[in-house]
Amino acid sequence: MKSRCLAALFALLLFVPVNAKAEISFNNESPGKSNLIYSRTTQSGFFDQLLLSRLVLNDGNEYQLTFSKTSPKDWYLFSDKGSTIQIDGEIAKLSLLDTQSEIKQGYSYANVTTTAMFDLTSLADRLATAKSVGFRIYFDNQPPADIVVPDKVLREWQKVITMK
Questions:
Q1: Pick from 57, 85, 118, 120: CA 20 to 30 A from residue 149's CA?
Q2: pLDDT in tens, 106-155
Q3: Percent of the chain having pLDDT more than 70?
Q4: What CATH topology corresponds to 2-162?
Q5: Euclidean distance between CA atoms 12 and 7, whole angstroms
């Protein structure tokens, strides 16, 4: 069940047009099974997309944050070492769940899209009341990226976390 939901999240991230606006969406698989609530933000600074997802299970919730980066010339290999989140000035280590890469080629171009999914389940309560959130994401082959989550995006994430 979890692997199917993770695969669905990656598919959502890779095949959505990049001009989409920030949004909160719901995906109900079927009654009595898991539900997915997510906030997708496109063209958010360094990353093309940020996707905060909440998987509602019978025994609780799981939260993941997916980063997506597309580049015509550079491959970004997300590292499983060192990436952090800063919530209201307090720093915590991020746990990398999965990464995927895809090459799209046309007649005169090639783009590499790389995605990484991090577990935020243990941090959800803190995110729900946070005033500021930032990330330092490490790569194996590129310099780290520092991201400050815009207030509007943070408010959307808080809706996803606190929604009944």
A1: 57
A2: 776 677 888 999 999 999 999 999 999 999 999 999 999 999 999 999 99
A3: 77
A4: Immunoglobulin-like (2.60.40)
A5: 9
Residue environment code for 53-88, b if the CB has 16+ CB neighbours within 10 A, otherwise e = bbbbeeeeebbbbbbbbbeeeeebebbeeebebbbe
42 close to 91: Cβ distance less than 8 angstroms? no
Query: Residue 162 above 50 pLDDT?
Result: yes
Characterize 100-119 residue by residue with b for buried, 16 or more Cβ atoms within 10 angstroms of its Cβ, and e for exposed.
Answer: beeeeeeeeeeebbbbbbbe
**So what's the pLDDT on residue 8?**
44
Residue bearing tokens 């209201």: 88
Ranges of each domain in the chain: 2-162
| CA atoms of 121 and 60, how far apart (whole Å) | 10
Distance CA 32, CA 69 (A): 35
What integer pLDDT is reported at residue 10 of this predicted model? 41
Instruction: State whether residue 83 is helix, strand or coil.
Output: coil
